[in-house]
Design brief:
By secondary structure, the protein is mainly alpha-helical. It contains 7 helices and no strands. The protein has helices at 2-8, 16-28, 32-42, 48-99, 108-213, 241-251, 271-274. InterPro entries: CCDC148/CCDC112 (IPR039902).
């Protein structure tokens, strides 16, 4: 029965609605042929062969269910027959257990002595356990105190190391800045000295160059920038001292009447201007 239900359930794989229609049609029809034709018209998706197979399964299912019911009846009868025997057995066991009391076999004095001894042992064990716990707590506190002290010492050492390192870095930084400043000052001093030397060398070189190019040039006397001269418009037509000396050196004598700006020759008039216009 269980195997049949496990394979197809209580409907052999059919849906509950189709199986219920099958049961209703089976109660109405007389034989299997009428059942197949009637059910096939209602359920056209199910063939007549499938309906016949389902009918065979249902007959076997009913047979197995009847056997199951019969087996259950037999089991219930057997159980009802063995129930009084079990009750008698249980009552006998209760009587025996109630009649036998193991505490009656011992004397009260012995029991008291054993209890006192057990209590004493328990008390001693508890005291020993307490002493052991106290000792462990004491050692634990000492260890924690040592660890704290060690931690403080390590922390102090680290702080001192950090301070020393910071001071060392500051000293190194100060020395670095001081050296850089000294180097800059030295370089600037060297640059100024070299510039002056180069300038003096340039001046000497220029002087030598001038002397090599014009050895006869004498040193020119410097005159003051301001000259006090009386305003004389006719001075424009007068010759300069340099001009007079040049004329004397060239002609031997100087004639003031022949050497004025008015006596200077003009440009020649071209031929095409002589007639008053352009000749074509």
């Amino acid at each position: 029965m269980k195997k049949s239900i496990r394979c197809g359930g209580h409907s052999n794989g059919w849906t509950p609605d189709d199986h219920n229609l099958f049961l209703k049609a089976r109660s109405k029809c007389c034989d299997i042929d009428e059942l197949c034709s009637y059910l096939h018209t209602i359920l056209p998706d199910i063939s007549e062969d499938e309906i016949r197979v389902h009918e065979k399964w249902y007959l076997k299912y009913l047979e197995l269910r009847e056997k199951q019911k019969h087996a259950i009846k037999i089991w219930r009868k057997a159980k009802s027959a063995t129930a009084p025997r079990n009750k008698l057995k249980e009552t006998a066991i209760k009587r025996v257990t109630s009649a036998y009391n193991p505490m009656k076999a011992f004397n009260k004095q012995e029991i008291k002595e054993k209890l006192d001894k057990w209590r004493q042992e328990k008390l001693e064990k508890s005291q020993q356990r307490k002493m052991l716990n106290d000792e462990m707590e004491k050692r634990k506190k000492e260890t924690e105190q040592k660890n704290k002290q060690k931690h403080k010492e390590v922390k102090k050492t680290i702080e001192n190391w950090k301070l020393a390192k910071l001071e060392k870095e500051e000293v190194q930084l100060y020395e670095k800045h001081f050296m850089e400043k000294q180097q800059r000052l030295f370089k600037s001093a060297m640059a100024n000295r070299l510039i002056k030397e180069f300038q003096s060398q340039d001046a000497v070189f220029v002087k030598r160059r001038i002397e090599s190019c014009n050895p006869r040039i004498k040193s020119i006397e410097r005159y003051p920038n301001t000259v006090n001269v009386v305003r004389d418009p006719s001075r424009v037509l007068k010759p300069t001292k340099q001009w007079i000396s040049r004329v004397k050196s060239r002609e031997g004598s100087y004639n003031s009447s022949s050497t004025t700006i008015k006596t200077i020759q003009k440009l020649r008039v071209p031929e095409w201007r002589k007639n008053g216009g352009i000749s074509r």
